[in-house]
Amino acid sequence: MRGFSKAIIVGNLTRDPELRSTPNGSSVCSFSVAVNRTFRDSNGEQKEDVSFIDCSAWGKLGEMISQYAKKGTGVLVSGRLSQHGWEDKEGNKRSRVEIVVEDFNFTTNANRGDGAASNSAESQAAPADIPSDIPEEIDLSEVPF
After folding, report:
1. Rounded to whole angstroms, what are the CA distances from 58 to 21, 39, 101, 138?
2. Model pTM score
3. Which residues, in sequence order, are bridge partners of residue 106?
4. How far apart are CA 105 and CA 57, in angstroms?
5. 22 closest CA partner among 55, 62, 53
6. From its phi and psi, is residue 71 left (phi > 0), alpha (psi between -120 and 50) or beta?
7. Cα separation of 73 and 117, whole Å?
8. With 90 as the cut, is the pLDDT of residue 24 above it?
9. Which fold is adopted by the domain 7-38+47-106?
10. pLDDT digit string (tens) for 54-71?
11. What is the pLDDT of residues 9-22, one digit of tens each?
12. What residue spans define the domains of the chain?
C-alpha cells in the first residue's frame, strides 16, 4: 500500500523566514511556527502547551513567504511531513521531522491593520509592524510542487 502524509497547522512564525539557495540554484525558505494548544489537566485546571514546528518551502512559494512573512505573522501551513536523519559529532543517530510546505495562507489581515482573521477564529492578532502590501490572495497556480 502506498503511504500518505499531510499536516495542517495554524500558528505564528517564531522568527523571520530564512531564504537560501541550494548549490543547483533552487530557493528554499526555512521558518518555524508556534502552535498553541489549551487543555484542562486531570485537576480541571486550564493549561497551555506550545509546539514549535519546523517548515520549509521551495521555489517561488518560499520566495513569497520570505518576502511577506516575518516573526509574529499568523499563518496556516499545509504540506507533507519529511523526516531527516543524521549522525551527530558523538556518533549518535539523530532525526527531525518538518513540514514541506505545499500551501500557505496568512491568518491575519494586515491590509485592514486591525489583526482581523480571515477564515480562522483561532488565529491571533498580527503585530502592528506587518507590511500592509501583503496580497489578500496569493495565486499559487504557477508554483511547481
Report:
1. 10, 34, 8, 15
2. 0.71
3. 75
4. 13
5. 62
6. beta
7. 11
8. yes
9. OB fold (Dihydrolipoamide Acetyltransferase, E2P) (2.40.50)
10. 999 999 999 999 999 999
11. 999 999 999 999 99
12. 7-38+47-106
